[in-house]
Amino acid sequence: MTDPTTADVLELGRRWAEAEQRADVETLDALTVADFALVGPLGFVLDKQQWLNRYRTKDLITTSLTWGEVTVRAYGDAAVVIGLHTQQASYRGQPSDGQFRATHIAVRAGERWQLAGIQLSPIGAFRPPEGI
Fold first, then answer.
1. pTM (predicted TM-score)
2. Which of 33, 64, 88, 126 has its CA 20 to 30 A from that of 99?
3. CA 72, 38, 54, 131 torsion: positive or negative?
């Protein structure tokens, strides 16, 4: 049986993956803390607004995103989540498909869990879009 913290963090990940695939900026904004940061597969860092703007500007189009092989390690009001992030996407018209080992950092704010950070590490041959 899954403990409540793990279940809540797994649900956060499920909701995040769905929102990314739908380019649902409003939900992504709600699922993340104010100082959220993404470390991309090439080492770049995006703050929350830069991360959300990828969808606002339609620079990033995600056609498929799966989040699996997830493990959760909870530490009180924080959790480290490691999973497999597989996407079909394009960035500014260039393919941005890939499979990544991803680390999510989740924090509890009251009764709700939010993402504080994501880091993506490419698995195999990741080809970044031109211009990055």
1. 0.89
2. 33
3. negative
